[in-house]
């Protein structure tokens, strides 16, 4: 079979309706007790693809009411009941994969692969109101090369004699000559107009610093279940990506015709586009039930703005820009 239709990749953009906290799984000494996941090189916060894949699987299983046992890790009960069904006509097991338990053979990796969710546009308080900041590195992931910008300025559509504060950092404002190309890329990802009207471009070096200096930090205290009052010495802080952050990720959908499950052809989906459609079922659930931790504290909701289709003329089997 030709490899031309082996997979298709779809870029997705999402707007956080609440702060989002995907923690590192522990606390540490420092400015914040419970930190969020960061890219090890750029130090910019991100949401791991594993977190997105897990919550998407759970929401698809909720929507497909016939398959509630196919959410989660799929480990069967001690008596052997439960776990992933692993059937070739199950949209959850075929799209997201399945395991048959530690003492059982078989399993399937799944037809959908999720990249990490990266910060594309980050909201910062300025004297002009909210401003959304991006960088060449962030735009490169979106498929737009931004070059020729001044490293120590804020680049905007027009130059200004008045410097702009991004948080407490005050920077001169210069004109960026390729502004139209940048805006077009963001419009293709369905970025809201009010964000595009208050956009700024900074260098990758400044972007990392600006993002980490303007994360939302909250303080909570553990409650004693007996007294209902705050426990002594139980105060802790945690950080989150602020509300209205725009995130970018990619879903790669494999062609089900290239795979078999237990010797049987996959019947739940027929093409990479159908795999994408199954993943998209979870989008309304992300908007109302959210992703990450601290959901009981008003965090996690994410509105998917776009799941961009491959551009006409792009070859299937290659990464779509």
Tell me what the structure shows.
The chain has 321 residues and is α+β, with helices and mostly antiparallel strands. The protein folds into 2 domains: 7-115 and 240-308, no CATH class; 121-214, no CATH class. The chain has 8 helices and 17 strands. The chain is flat. The protein starts with 6 loop residues before the first strand and ends in a 13-residue tail after the last strand.
Task: Please outline what is shown here.
With 321 residues, this protein is an alpha+beta fold. It has helices at 49-63, 91-96, 136-141, 179-188, 193-196, 204-213, 272-280, 283-289, and strands spanning 7-16, 46-47, 98-99, 107-108, 112-114, 117-126, 129-134, 154-156, 160-166, 169-175, 199-201, 216-223, 230-240, 246-254, 260-261, 264-265, 302-308. It is flat and about 70 Å long.
User: Ends: how far apart?
Assistant: 25 Å
Overall structural domain count: 2
Low-confidence stretches: 311-321
* Shape annotation: flat
Number of helices: 8
